[in-house]
Design brief:
The protein is α+β, with helices and mostly antiparallel strands. Helices cover 36% and strands 11% of the residues. It has 5 helices and 4 strands, in the order E-H-E-H-E-E-H-H-H. The N terminus is likely disordered.
Length: 140
């Protein structure tokens, strides 16, 4: 299945993340633990579905500068993606949606700095992280 051409699963935003990045993987585990409604699906940029979604939205999966949240034909990126994730988790995490009140330029500058330095600051895995057990079905 080529995700760049096929329709996406209805009603479930897809978070595309770097499964080799320790910070990104920790955030993915956080989402799975706190997304009790099963609202989000996950796709690693190293996998076929995640790489195709990155390409679909003009991002090089070999050198990404952001994670994205895909909803239908739209992708949120940078700080907007993080805020969309936290807002979609419900309380108390939804309260972090108030970060939208901060100017996007400032939010994105901080996001991009962390994204550029994520491996140096948090580390890089030799292999991709993947959920296990009941949560494995939420990874595309």
């Amino acid at each position: 299945m080529v995700w760049g051409l096929m329709p996406l699963p209805d009603g479930h935003p897809i978070i595309v993340f770097d499964a080799q990045c320790v910070l990104c993987s920790a955030h993915a585990r956080f989402v799975l633990r706190h997304d009790r409604r099963g609202h989000f699906l996950l796709a690693s940029m190293q996998g076929e579905a995640g790489a195709a979604l990155y390409r679909r939205f003009g991002i090089d999966p070999a050198d990404p500068d952001t994670l994205i949240v895909v909803e239908g034909d739209r992708a949120r990126r940078d700080s907007d993606a993080i805020i969309a994730i936290w807002s979609g988790l419900g309380w108390p995490w939804r309260a972090l949606g108030l970060l939208r009140l901060m100017p996007r330029g400032l939010r994105d500058r901080v996001y991009r700095w962390v994204a550029r330095h994520r491996y140096r600051l948090f580390g890089r895995r030799d292999s991709c992280w993947a959920p296990d057990g009941a949560q494995a079905g939420r990874l595309l």
